[in-house]
C-alpha cells in the first residue's frame, strides 16, 4: 500500500522536476499563495538568525542534548542556499526530510508534519522560495555534531518508522471547512507537534492526539474537545480569538512557544482558515473514553488573598513561614495582577483565577510563567510580563524556594489546589524542561534507533534557544 502511494506521488513531481528552476517564470498569484503557506508553516521562525540575520538565510542555532544544530540557508542563492534545488528535491526536503544531496535531515526540521502537504501546495511554496524570497549569498554555519550523531543515515530508520508517508486527502463525510482545518492543523500549522505527547522514541503518539505535551519549559495543554481537561467549553469563536490575539479573557493567554507561533504565524492567517482550524480542533475527541464531568479547568479559583495572616509582620521574617507565598505575591505580583489576583478591568493584566496557567492539570505553566514571563507581539499590541527567573536581565530574581512557595500559594488560592510544587520541579523548568528519556536510552547503548530518536529532542530545545537569543538581544 505504502509503495503504491509514494509512486503515485512521485509521478507528477517528476514532471515538474524536468524543467530547471531558472527557466520557469512563476505567476504572481502562485508566489503569493506560496508566501501565505510559508507563513502558515512558520519557515521563517527557524530559518532566520534573529540576531540581525537576513530572512530565510539560516544560522539559527538549536541547542540539543547532543550538540548544536544550525538551520540552513533556504534562500534561492545558488551557491549557499537552495537555488539549485529542483521542485522534486524541494518536495523531498519538506515532506520527507531528505536534503538535495540525498542526506537525511534531522527532525529539528518538522517534515513529519509537513508530510501531509499536497503537491499543489508544494508547488506554490517552491515558486515562492525560488522567486519570492531574496537570495542571500552567505554561508550559514554548519552543523557539527559529535560521533555518532553526525551519521545522518541513522535518521533514515527513524524517518521510515515515524514519518507518515501520506499526503492529505479530503474525508468525503466531513465538510470542506473541516477538511481544510485538518489539513492545516495537522500539517503546516503543526499543532500536534507541540500538543501531542511523545513516545519513547520522541515520536508523536497519534492515539493521544492533542491531549497535551511538554515543549521545553512550557506545557502545551490538552486542546481536545473534552469539557473538563480540554477546551470543549470554548466556542469556535473563542479559539479563533485566542489564535489571533494570544488571549481569551478569563481563560487563557499565550506565552512561550505558543506566543511565538501566534506572533509569526497564526495571527496572519485568514479568518476563513482560522475558523477551519477551530472547526477541526473542536472535533478532536479526548483519548479517554467518554467526556470527563466536573468543573472545567477554566472555572477554578476565585478572588481573595491570604494577607491578613501576615499584616504588620516583617517581610523577610515571613519568607520561611506558612505565608511566604502570599508575601512574595504581594511584593512582586499584586502591583499588576491585583491584591486579590483579580487582574485589571481592561483585561491587560489577567486575573490569576479562571486562568489556564494556575488551573491546569499540572503545575508546569505556573512555574514557567513566573520564571520566563510573557512576551508577545501581535496586531493587538505588545504584551509583557517580566521574567523572575532570568539570571541576567531580571529586575527581581526569585530563587527555587521562593518560586515553589509562590506557586503553591497561587495553586491553592486561585487554581488547582490538588497540585504541589517542589523546589526540584522549579529547577527542572529553570533548566528548560524535563530532559528526554531518550538521553538515558542512548547512554545505556540502545543502538542506532535510540540515538536517532534522541536527535528529535533537538526540535524541542530550539524553542529555548530562541528565547535565550531574544533575551540576549533585549539586554
Ligand atoms: C522548527 C524549525 C524549522 C521549521 C519551522 C522549518 N525548518 Fe527547514 N530546516 C530546519 C533545520 C534545523 C534544518 C537543517 C537540518 C539538518 O541540517 O539536518 C532545515 C533544513 C531545511 C531544508 C534543507 C536545506 C539544505 O540546506 O539543503 C529545506 C529545503 C528546508 N528546511 C525548508 C523549509 C521550509 C520550506 C519550511 C517551511 C515550510 C521549513 N524548512 C520550516 C528547521 C526548520
Ligand atoms: C510550537 C509549539 C506550539 C504549536 C505549534 C502550537 N501550540 Fe498551542 N500552545 C503551546 C503552548 C506551550 C501553550 C501554553 C501557553 C501558555 O499557557 O502560556 C499552548 C496553548 C494553547 C491553547 C490554550 C490552551 C489552554 O488551556 O491554555 C490553545 C487553545 C492552543 N494552544 C491551540 C493551538 C492550536 C489550535 C495550534 C495549531 C493551529 C497550536 N496551539 C499550535 C504550544 C504550541
Ligand atoms: C509588570 C506587570 C506584571 C507583573 C509584575 C507580573 N505579571 Fe504576571 N502577567 C502580566 C501580563 C501582561 C501577563 C500576560 C497577559 C496576556 O497574556 O495577555 C501576565 C501573565 C501571567 C500569568 C499567565 C501566563 C500564561 O502563560 O498563561 C501568570 C500565571 C502570571 N502572570 C503570574 C504572575 C506572578 C506569579 C507574578 C509575580 C511573581 C506576576 N505574574 C507578575 C503582567 C505582570
CATH class of the largest domain equals Mainly Alpha
H-E order: HHHEEHHHHHHEEHEEHHHHHHEEHHHH
CATH second-level architecture of the largest domain: Orthogonal Bundle
Per DSSP E runs of 2 or more residues, the count of β-strands stands at 8
Domain Cytochrome c: 29-133, 176-285, 320-414
Binding site for heme c 3: 333, 336-337
Transmembrane segments: 444-463
Cofactor: heme c
Chain-wise SSE layout:
Layout: H1 2-17, H2 28-41, H3 43-46, E1 61-64, E2 67-70, H4 87-96, H5 111-114, H6 119-131, H7 154-162, H8 176-186, H9 191-195, E3 213-215, E4 218-220, H10 236-245, E5 247-248, E6 252-253, H11 256-264, H12 271-281, H13 315-318, H14 324-332, H15 334-337, H16 364-372, E7 374-378, E8 381-385, H17 400-414, H18 423-430, H19 437-443, H20 448-474
Antiparallel strand pairs: 1-2, 3-4, 5-6, 7-8
The protein binds heme C (3 copies).
The site of one heme C (HEC) has 26 residues, from helix 2, helix 3 and helix 4.
Task: Report on this structure.
The chain starts with a helix and ends with a helix. The chain has helices at residues 2-17, 28-41, 43-46, 87-96, 111-114, 119-131, 154-162, 176-186, 191-195, 236-245, 256-264, 271-281, 315-318, 324-332, 334-337, 364-372, 400-414, 423-430, 437-443, 448-474, and strands at 61-64, 67-70, 213-215, 218-220, 247-248, 252-253, 374-378, 381-385. The strands form four sheets. It has a two-stranded antiparallel ribbon with strand order 1-2. It has a two-stranded antiparallel sheet with strand order 3-4. It folds into two domains: 2-162, Orthogonal Bundle (Cytochrome Bc1 Complex, Chain D, domain 2), CATH 1.10.760; 217-433, Cytochrome c-like domain (Cytochrome Bc1 Complex, Chain D, domain 2). The longest helix has 27 residues, at 448-474. Helix 16 crosses helix 18 and helix 19 (437-443) crosses helix 20 (448-474). Mean pLDDT is 84; it is low at 1-21 and 458-465. By secondary structure, it is mainly alpha-helical. The structure holds heme C (3 copies). One heme C binds at residues 247, 253, 255, 332-333, 335-337, 349-350, 352, 356-358, 365-366, 369-370, 374, 383-386, 388, 406, 410. Residues 38, 41-43, 45-47, 62, 69, 71-72, 74, 82, 93-94, 99-100, 105-106, 108-110, 114, 125, 143, 459 line the site of one heme C (HEC).
